From TrEMBL:
It is an enzyme of class 3 (hydrolase). This is Ribonuclease T. GO terms for cellular component: cytosol. It comes from Marinobacterium mangrovicola. Binds two Mg(2+) per subunit. The active form of the enzyme binds two Mg(2+) ions in its active site. The first Mg(2+) forms only one salt bridge with the protein. Trims short 3' overhangs of a variety of RNA species, leaving a one or two nucleotide 3' overhang. Responsible for the end-turnover of tRNA: specifically removes the terminal AMP residue from uncharged tRNA (tRNA-C-C-A). Also appears to be involved in tRNA biosynthesis. The keyword Glycosyltransferase does not apply. SUPFAM superfamilies: Ribonuclease H-like (SSF53098). Mg(2+) 1 binds at residue 22. The record marks 28, 76, 123, 145 as: Important for substrate binding and specificity. Residues 17-202 form the Exonuclease domain.
Length: 215
């Protein structure tokens, strides 16, 4: 396939496909504390080169054997890990539910790998990677250490690092009552990331980059 026929996303982020992820957990330690919920939003690019959310995926997760459950974290998220109505599945099943469409999207966008986008991305990245390691998943689609952090980007673009406040300044509706649901936070983080990238484009920043490239 020639470069001219490749998806434009393949050239935007050095061959990486941004995928927005949010996790809800039973603590802050990704090695010892339970992963309880994971959501992902894949991104795509329209014909004019603007970044837009594509598809959303979510899974409720059973605590792994021996997992630590911090009472303060459970009170904060409002999640009962053992509520049968959650429909929770094993870490392996949950991650494959998320990873399979991500791998498909990476391929369809002619990218070489996914890169995790998150609000305080190192937190989400740590839980995803440790869960994948525990589940013995060999084909983790995400870059092993690089991420895009919307807390940092929003601090630069809007002077705010809290997700709700950054969305407010960016003109994105944010319902605090739905916050700390992995899917809701992921979808809002996706909107925020797309807004920042697209405003950079509108300001001429991306065209300036293209103009400096060697022909």
């Amino acid at each position: 396939m020639s470069s001219a026929s490749k998806h434009p996303m393949s050239d935007r982020f050095r061959g990486f496909l941004p995928v927005v992820v949010d996790v809800e957990t039973a603590g802050f330690n990704s090695r010892t504390d339970a992963l309880l919920e994971i959501a992902a939003v894949t991104l795509t690019m329209d014909e004019e080169g603007y970044l837009i959310p594509d598809k959303s995926f979510v899974a409720q997760v059973e605590p792994f054997e021996g997992a630590n459950l911090e009472p303060e974290a459970l009170a904060f998220t409002g999640i009962d890990p053992y509520d049968p109505e959650r429909g929770a599945v094993s870490e392996l099943t949950a991650l494959e539910t998320i990873f399979k469409p991500i791998r498909k999207s990476v391929k369809s966008h002619d990218c070489k790998r996914a890169i995790l986008v998150g609000h305080n991305a190192s937190f989400d990245h740590g839980f995803v990677c440790n869960a994948a390691e525990r589940s013995d998943i060999k084909r983790n689609p995400f870059h092993p250490f690089s991420t895009f952090d919307t807390a940092t980007l929003a601090g630069l673009a809007f002077g705010q690092t809290v997700l709700a406040r950054a969305c407010d300044v960016a003109g994105i509706d944010f319902d605090g009552k739905q916050a700390h649901s992995a899917l809701y936070d992921t979808e809002k983080t996706a909107e925020l990331f797309c807004t920042i990238v697209n405003r950079w484009k509108d300001l001429g920043g991306w065209e300036m980059v293209l103009a400096t490239r060697d022909d």
